[in-house]
Amino acid sequence: MRISTRFLLFCGLSLATLACAHTPQMKAEYRQFAEEMAQKHGFDADAVTQLLNETTYRDDTITAITRPAESKAWYEYRPIFIKQDRIDDGVAFWQENQELLDQVSRKTGVTPEMIVAIIGVETRYGRFTGRHRVIDALTTLAFGYPRRAKFFRNELEEFLLLTREEHVDPRTATGSYAGAMGKPQFISSSYRAYAVDHDGDNKRDLWNSNADIIASVANYFKVHGWQAGQPVTLPVSEGKDLDALLAAGVKPKLTWGELTAHGVKPLQDVALDPETPVSLIKLNAGDADEYWVCLNNFYVITRYNTSKLYAMAAYQLSQAIREARQATQVAQ
């Protein structure tokens, strides 16, 4: 649904946010959704209808989701996250939560630096968890963004279930423009499926409990197949005739032997079995392209966010944090 500038001005609003009355079509769709929630999950249809009618349509949400940062080139995207202050803050977060991170890492096999980096990429270690009301974001996308309406209607359903299960007020919960919540920015379906109550208070709190937050990120990675002690990605030389290999995608469907047969060579001193499942990606570094061999653990990071740019930034931030922490320990 596109909203005209004239309509916005009539309502006395900016292009950023729309709070005008919902259209009859939207109200009808809200009612249908509410009745489905009542039938499937025992919600009060009138209460759900009222909740949705109270939401604010966010035109800025539609704008943001059509212009994600992941659409940038790698040389533009990397500096957003690989910054000295984000590295330093990651070292501090690790230090503040060292015992917890060590405990969770031993249990799940996910390295502390990877857990810290994810929280750092997502919300700067909890500083920026989002100011959008989740109910506004999800309702806007579920009923005003046809391209992904099915996905976001499912997330709206999951959100209402989540608020009931975790005793969260659906009117006050805040998150990103796409409805991701807390320090690790879990969408509603991921929150319900992978969040854990690590501090034992019978509540999975991804906004305030670092115990739950750290354990939930690690659990997400573990469930999606993180392999303890295994490499994530390796820089390699370009090789020859790589188009078909690059087109295979980020999921490890190739073998290291196939890549070496095309002249791909590691730029680090590593030894991989020829049968090791891998993928090959190319990143636009500006003056030149970078080629990386990605293994299972890299693919696991893309289960958190499907962008290969996101996965690479999170991995490189994790390594920078680990190296900075080691340097700090040596200096002490």
Report a brief summary of the structure.
Helix content is 54%, strand content 7%. With 332 residues, it is an alpha+beta fold.
Keywords:
332 residues; alpha+beta; 4-stranded antiparallel β-sheet; two-stranded antiparallel sheet; 16 helices; 6 strands; 7% strand; globular
Describe this structure in words.
The chain is an alpha+beta fold. Helix 6 (84-96) crosses helix 8 (112-123), helix 7 runs parallel beside helix 12 (210-223) and helix 8 crosses helix 16 (308-331). The protein is globular and about 65 Å long. The strands form two sheets. It has a four-stranded antiparallel beta sheet. A two-stranded antiparallel sheet has the order 1-2. It starts with a helix and ends with a helix. The chain has helices at 5-11, 24-41, 45-53, 59-65, 74-81, 84-96, 98-108, 112-123, 134-144, 149-166, 188-194, 210-223, 243-247, 256-261, 296-304, 308-331, and strands at 132-133, 174-175, 233-236, 254-255, 277-284, 289-294. Helix content is 54%, strand content 7%. It is built from 16 helices and six strands.
Q: How do the strands line up in the largest sheet?
A: 3-6-5-4
Assembly category: single chain
Rg of Cα set = 22 Å
Taking the sheet with the most strands, its summary is: 4 strands, antiparallel
Helix percent reads 40-55%
Fraction in beta strands: 5-15%
- Give the number of helices: 16
- Total number of beta strands: 6
What is the arithmetic mean of pLDDT?
A: 92
Globally, the shape reads globular
**H/E order of the elements?**
HHHHHHHHEHHEHHEHEHEEHH
Termini gap: 58 Å
Give unreliable regions as ranges: 1-20
Structural class: alpha+beta
